[in-house]
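To whoever picks this up:

The parser on our side crashed when reading a file containing two proteins. I've narrowed it down to the boundary between the first structure block and the second sequence. Both blocks are reproduced below exactly, byte for byte. First block:
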Amino acid sequence: MNTLRNKVQLIGNLGNNPEIITLDSGKKLAKFSIATNESFKNAKGEKVQNTEWHNIVAWNKTAEIIEKYVEKGSEIAIEGKLTSRSYDDKDGNKRYITEVVCSELLMLGGK
């Protein structure tokens, strides 16, 4: 059960092309967001579709694979852990962000 403590699995589509950053150390970072969709019927029996957006980051070899093969609209499955961090924006306001740090990637669909 210890492996279930902080585990996220999502299947969704990229909203934009991934942002690839190469750090001074040579490590690569991929940042992107994916949309997951959920459908249900409301009290009136009408079908409702709810879309959630998730911020994803991937490092090193996973980032290199994303850089080469993943683009806007791609359907992917990811597994990772949920993390939160804060930073100060350009106006000095503290901002908080929650992201999924991707440890596994599966490309779905085809082109």
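<<boundary where parser fails>>
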Amino acid sequence: MDPLQTLIEIEAIKNLKAKYFRALDTKDWAGFTAVWEPEIDHEMPTENRKYVGSREDFVTGVAAALTGVITVHHGQNPEIEITSPTTAKAIWPMVDRLKPGPDAYAGAPRLVGYGHYHETYVKSDAGWRIKTQILTRLRLDVTPATETAADD
């Protein structure tokens, strides 16, 4: 692949990840579904969570877990490698903040996490989509539901 096309593909993947963050934090579940391949593999090893299956079932689970929870996800400075004309991989340093809102369910998470998204992508007629995602944590600060965080 020529260098210009490589840059075009990298920018398309950056736009995909920007849509991922926006859709997740605004609870745009149709938009969040659209960033994933139809069959996905998602893992959070530090939290012993693994999911392999349809993107629709995955997004339904994420939506339920975040009901009433205010979220802010940031990713920056990705290392993106185009591995073929239709495949790529990336590592995204990330920070996420979750805070129960007034409509949150009892026991909703309150946390600040730091780590990396390790992702693979597939390009089809629909454009680039996430195929696999592994979230590794470097640090996870959790505030018990009975306490109020200092930054509230």
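After patching the parser it read the second block fine. The CA atoms of residues 17 and 35 lie 8 Å apart. The mean pLDDT is 94.
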